[in-house]
Amino acid sequence: MSVVIVVGAQWGDEGKGKVVDLFTERADTVVRYGGGANAGHTLVIEGKKLVTHLVPSGVCHPGKSCVLGDGMVIDPHTLLEEIADCQSRGLLMRNELLIGLGAHVILPYHKLLDGLREDRGATTGRAIGTTRRGIGPAYEAKAARKGVRMRDLEKPARVRELVAANLDEMIPLILHLGGTAPSKAEVAKWIDDALAAGDKLRPYSGDAGRHVARTIAAGKHVLFEGAQGCLLDLDHGTYPYVTSSSTIAAGACQSAGIGPTQIDTVVGITKAYATRVGEGPFPTEIKGEAGERLRIAGGEFGATTGRPRRCGWLDLPALRMGVRLSGMGSLALTKLDVLANLGEVSVCVAYKLDGKELDEPPTDPEDIARAEPVFTKFPGWTKLPSECRDVTDLPAPARAYVDTIQRMAGVPFCLVSHGPDRTETIRLIDPFAAAI
Ligand code: GDP
Ligand code: IMO
Ligand code: MG
Q1: pTM
Q2: 92-96, 294-298, 425-429: which has the minimum mean pLDDT?
Q3: What domains can be seen in the chain, in order of their start residue?
């Protein structure tokens, strides 16, 4: 039996979808934990692309069970669209999906509030650059103990009462932010639509926590799929420029309701460089034409919103922080191919702040903005061989880059990815088999 957590080691979009798809070969159950449709996880299988937002990225392996943990916030309409998309591809045709009844429901007013705050933030300089998917407002309602859960969708009177209570408090805020209060007819439609979606999702819904616990107790392999990345964690990320959930490995236990002693290992995913979407400090960001070249080379446009991602050099202090926060036993390095043909490659190895050298970023965002990244340069490489199955197949400068990052990150690489397809992968350690 092995229980493995896959977690983003940076600011999201590290290639978690590809890695989870690969690891699902060895798993019986894949559990998505935390967040909602702010995530966009891309799988490329034999040239065909699938982007998952809510459904776990193990979906392309028929017969494996895909669970949505209780800690998620679910937009029921997005989930139904995603299920339909999967089914049109012949996936999720059997009893493969289980939605936790404790997960919270994203309703249209959460998205409305998220968007209004971002619009206001754009004029006051306080925007977070959210995905506008209603994630923050839905988690706020949960923490205020006013949220609507998937299980509530079975009880129309309860949903009406909860929505009325939420809107009672929210309408003054909507008006304050320049929005328009929804009409009674609009609210009635929101509720009817949510209830109708709840009816369609009911056959897939159940006690996710017990299912996961039983699967582990039966000695099967369970894979947890994180969303976002450690540096977007609500408690430990670059607050306030973070998402509203626990994105570190601990979030898996919280979302699924299992104890930390059940976890065997944590695999962090990092790109060979860095990206970030939305606002917030990003000390290794490459501005101007050079940044644009990296963006184009890496296809760095959001899988959910299509926004151009900010691009920069690999930030080892930030990566070390991710390794520490999630207790990673190994790392998967992705997008090594993207750095080919870009000339010399830089890596931030430390920060300098007030005359001191730091091996992790400072915690105060103002200090992060003041800190000076210390870069080391590596000779570049022009191209990777089309068949690359082992690190010895890599050109010498790429190999030196990989070896140095591995050493400086302090944990071994379990795989190196050099293209979006399943086949474009150097496999080094099987996290389900090895004690890492
Ligand atoms: P996730 O949110 O962590 O699952 O990552 P995204 O799917 O948002 O973004 C990662 C992007 O990089 C997707 O378009 C993947 O298909 C792509 N990708 C993953 N690994 C590699 C790789 O090694 N090389 C290249 N060129 N693309 C990759
Ligand atoms: P995956 O799982 C990258 C970012 C947003 C914004 C901040 C808050 O695909 O890696 P939110 O909508 O969550 O309130 O936005 O978090 N963000 C992501 N960035 N990848 C993601 O998911 C993200 N999910 C949220 O851009 O800066
Ligand atoms: Mg993504």
Answers
A1: 0.97
A2: 92-96
A3: 3-94+208-435 (3.40.440.10), 104-203 (1.10.300.10)
